[in-house]
């Protein structure tokens, strides 16, 4: 059995990681109340006690707008928390799989971002996540960083659930149509990380480093919303779809600036783990089908 310690185990991705691990793995999941990664003493104690073969960090401060006024906490979790894990892992030579974000880029590109493209976050959340990436890289610990985007899943708040809730309440909605990105299911991120974990146990090594991973193809929030409503009506989760008006970013001001373009090039990960890029359409279909029996 390969023992894997998962932090942030109640989050969108963390909860899928602890549900979906493959045979041959034993998973110890810690929620934020059980292991606060900003507490270096506790991080060290838990890692020494558990002595896992691998750590997957799914813990993060993810409130993009709130981070603008909660700078210290965002950095405490997204930078110092990662440093704490890296220090404890380094002492025992344990690799870390870490998740990062498309928001490390400035959003001015017109081609999908490669792993080697220059970064330039425009908000506190993106900057704090970038600081975490750098802390991990500088720690010397063996690591995989998976940058992903527009995450949705059964647990936690996300765009799919917000749209379904608003679709129940309203006949008309306005959704931003000039921000481009790739929705990505928490399930597919968890599955991807487990593929890396399996490869690691089989080969006792990995092509370590940075990888971009999202579902395909690129769309806008407006395109994503329309697809969600189409599927929700087909699955019987909504009686009828609301009218979805396309608006611009300027019409929907937010505390944190959002990148106009956050599409990532996933060719590197697709080369390493063949055929690994699921379509988000199938992923929302599966999730919405789950909601036919359960409340979202
Ligand atoms: N959500 C997105 O659209 C998106 C997009 C790109 C990348 N990502 C990245 O993907 C990863 C997973 O995100 P997600 O969507 O699963 O986020 P999430 O649902 O917000 O989960 C993050 C988890 O981390 C926990 N956490 C927060 N502070 C912590 C601390 N100090 N110590 C331990 N745990 C702590 C949270 O617990 P509490 O709820 O108790 O605070 C939560 O359970 C993150 O690295 C995120 O930056 C997310």
UniProtKB/TrEMBL annotation:
Keyword Oxidoreductase in record: yes
Pathway assigned in UniProt: Carbohydrate biosynthesis; dTDP-L-rhamnose biosynthesis
Assigned keywords, A-Z: NADP, Oxidoreductase
SUPFAM superfamilies: NAD(P)-binding Rossmann-fold domains
Enzyme Commission code: 1.1.1.133
Segments forming a coiled coil: none
Principal EC category: oxidoreductase
RmlD-like substrate binding domain boundaries: 3-292
Note on how the cofactor is bound: Binds 1 Mg(2+) ion per monomer.
Required cofactor(s): Mg(2+)
Catalytic activities: dTDP-beta-L-rhamnose + NADP(+) = dTDP-4-dehydro-beta-L-rhamnose + NADPH + H(+)
GO molecular function: dTDP-4-dehydrorhamnose reductase activity
InterPro entries on file: dTDP_dehydrorham_reduct, NAD(P)-bd_dom_sf, RmlD-like-bd
Record carries keyword Zinc: no
Family: Belongs to the dTDP-4-dehydrorhamnose reductase family.
Function according to Swiss-Prot or TrEMBL: Catalyzes the reduction of dTDP-6-deoxy-L-lyxo-4-hexulose to yield dTDP-L-rhamnose.
Protein name: dTDP-4-dehydrorhamnose reductase
């Amino acid at each position: 059995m390969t023992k894997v310690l998962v932090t942030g185990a109640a989050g969108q991705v963390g909860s899928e990681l602890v549900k979906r691990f493959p045979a041959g793995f034993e998973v110890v999941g810690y929620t934020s109340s059980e292991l606060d990664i900003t507490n270096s003493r506790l991080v060290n104690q838990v890692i020494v006690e558990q002595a896992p073969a691998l750590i997957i960090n799914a813990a993060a401060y993810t409130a993009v707008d709130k981070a603008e006024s909660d700078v210290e906490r965002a950095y405490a979790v997204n930078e110092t928390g990662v440093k704490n894990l890296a220090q404890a892992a380094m002492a025992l030579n344990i690799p870390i799989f870490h998740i990062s974000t498309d928001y490390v880029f400035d959003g001015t590109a017109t081609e999908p971002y490669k792993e080697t493209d220059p970064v330039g976050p425009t908000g506190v959340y993106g900057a704090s996540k970038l600081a975490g990436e750098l802390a991990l890289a500088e720690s010397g610990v063996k690591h995989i960083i998976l940058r992903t985007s527009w995450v949705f899943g059964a647990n936690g708040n996300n765009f799919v659930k917000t749209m379904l809730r608003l679709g129940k309440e309203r006949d008309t909605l306005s959704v931003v149509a000039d921000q481009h990105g790739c929705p990505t299911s928490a399930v597919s991120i968890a599955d991807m990380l487990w593929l890396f974990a399996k490869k690691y146990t089989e080969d006792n090594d990995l092509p370590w480093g940075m990888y971009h991973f999202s579902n395909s193809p690129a769309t806008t929030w407006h395109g994503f919303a329309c697809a969600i409503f189409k599927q929700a009506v087909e699955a019987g989760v909504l009686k009828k779809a609301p009218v979805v008006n396309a608006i611009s970013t300027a019409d929907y001001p937010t505390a944190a600036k959002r990148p106009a373009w956050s599409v990532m090039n996933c060719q590197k990960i697709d080369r390493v783990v063949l055929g690994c890029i699921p379509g988000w359409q199938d992923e929302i279909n599966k999730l919405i089908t789950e909601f036919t029996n359960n409340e979202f």
